[in-house]
């Protein structure tokens, strides 16, 4: 993940007369934009219809109803999921099959269930249920994933932020926080092509997170590997092997990994995965069994047959890349051509994942989103990448270009650029 900036005269270096002319130009462009009556959406990281079409063969599967062990998948049982699918994704996630649970269609549900279980019963290495602690706090790297923050807020768990860098969270800040505060029970992390920055946690940062001393004996890393296979270039980032690192450091129960096929096959009918120590897996399925008899093993069987092997998953993701990489290239092209050199924005250039993180002038993100809304372009709310929706600098906007067709991505990004420029010149002139 890199950042791209500009190559012409920054607005802050222009004269009052030049700013006035530029402002008039942008006001006219914005008026013309509104007059077009657009209705475009860059809010959520959803797969496009063409991506979903790649998995159409699932609809004619499975062939037969028995898994590799001869178990009838139509019946009850098998809380941990069918063996062949667990083996397939164990190889992809760099873990052992015994460390993997294949579940329903949503990894977010698994995350919520794990939080509930920790809250009510504590973890494998807990002294007591988290609900009996005086306070529970999580570390949240920012910018980050809004649904993670929503879950914590729902529980009443406090959140403390640390910056997210190209190679992962600010590990020195994390280490200092966890070393002395026993109320800090966990942290969120999207380790590969992070939402929304596209950052990739390095093996070195992962090793430090796995080994650092923590005041809470049951500190957890919620390792949400949602985009592990979602590459945008031929050079594919490899996720850090957090479970092995943690086990080698004497903290085998610290990380709990999540992943899914939601953006690989069918977003609403995929398979989610949880991985952790063998003890963590037994802990999870033990609690799961109080309210479930087994997952949708028929769906798991069809996925196993559809992919055929771990390489089948990799090959399938190349087809996704061919569909969405041009959309990210278009975002980069328009931002560079329209905003480059003006000193009004920086943005990420991810090599995988589903988002571009756009940083505009401090104090203008909310204005950009409002201008876009009035012009018919829906953007994720400013601040969504921060706990409680509070971006202290009001500058970060998450762009999600995967879902619209390419021509709509172009239209939407041209409109976003116009809104950024108008908001920027308004602020610069107000400060002059």
From TrEMBL:
Signal peptide: none
Keyword Transferase included in the entry's annotation: yes
GO MF annotation list: L-aspartate:2-oxoglutarate aminotransferase activity
A Pfam family that the UniProt record links to this protein: Asp_aminotransf
The keyword Transferase is assigned to this record: yes
The entry's keywords: Aminotransferase, Transferase
Protein name: Aminotransferase class I/II-fold pyridoxal phosphate-dependent enzyme
Native organism: Pedococcus bigeumensis
Lineage: Bacteria, Bacillati, Actinomycetota, Actinomycetes, Micrococcales
């Amino acid at each position: 993940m890199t950042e791209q900036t500009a190559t012409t005269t920054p607005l802050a270096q222009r004269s009052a007369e030049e700013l006035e002319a530029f402002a008039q130009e942008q006001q006219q462009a914005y008026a013309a934009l509104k007059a077009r009556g657009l209705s475009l959406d860059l809010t959520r990281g959803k797969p496009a219809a063409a991506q979903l079409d790649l998995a159409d063969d699932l609809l004619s599967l499975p062939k037969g109803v028995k898994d590799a062990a001869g178990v009838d998948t139509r019946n009850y049982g098998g809380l941990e999921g069918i063996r062949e699918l667990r083996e397939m994704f164990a190889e992809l996630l760099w873990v052992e099959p015994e460390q993997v649970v294949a579940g329903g269609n949503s990894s977010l549900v698994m995350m919520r269930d794990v939080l509930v279980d920790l809250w009510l019963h504590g973890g494998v290495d807990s002294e007591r249920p988290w609900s009996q602690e005086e306070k529970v706090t999580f570390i949240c790297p920012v910018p980050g994933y809004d649904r993670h923050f929503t879950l914590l807020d729902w529980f009443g768990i406090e959140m403390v932020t640390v910056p997210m860098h190209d190679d992962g969270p600010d590990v020195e800040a994390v280490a200092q926080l966890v070393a002395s505060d026993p109320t800090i029970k966990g942290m969120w992390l999207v380790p590969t092509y992070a939402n929304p920055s596209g950052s990739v946690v390095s093996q070195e940062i992962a090793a430090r997170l796995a080994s650092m001393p923590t005041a809470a004996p049951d500190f957890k890393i919620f390792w949400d590997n949602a985009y592990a296979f979602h590459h945008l270039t031929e050079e594919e980032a490899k996720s850090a092997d957090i479970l092995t690192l943690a086990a080698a450091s004497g903290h085998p129960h610290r990380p709990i990994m999540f992943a899914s096929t939601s953006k690989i096959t069918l977003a609403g009918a995929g398979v989610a995965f949880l991985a952790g120590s063998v003890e963590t897996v037994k802990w999870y399925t033990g609690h799961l069994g109080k309210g479930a008899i087994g997952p949708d093993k028929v769906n798991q069987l069809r996925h196993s047959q559809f992919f055929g092997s771990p390489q089948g998953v990799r090959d399938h993701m190349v087809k996704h890349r061919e569909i969405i990489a041009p959309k990210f290239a278009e975002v980069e092209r328009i931002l560079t051509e329209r905003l480059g050199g003006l000193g009004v924005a920086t943005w990420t250039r991810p090599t995988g994942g589903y988002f571009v993180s756009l940083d505009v002038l401090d104090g203008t993100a909310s204005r950009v989103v409002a201008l876009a809304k009035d012009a018919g372009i829906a953007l994720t709310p400013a601040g969504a990448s921060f706990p409680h929706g509070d971006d202290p600098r009001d500058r970060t906007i998450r762009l999600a270009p995967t879902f619209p067709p390419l021509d709509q991505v172009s239209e939407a990004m041209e409109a976003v650029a116009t809104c950024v420029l108008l908001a920027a010149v308004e602020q610069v002139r107000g400060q002059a």
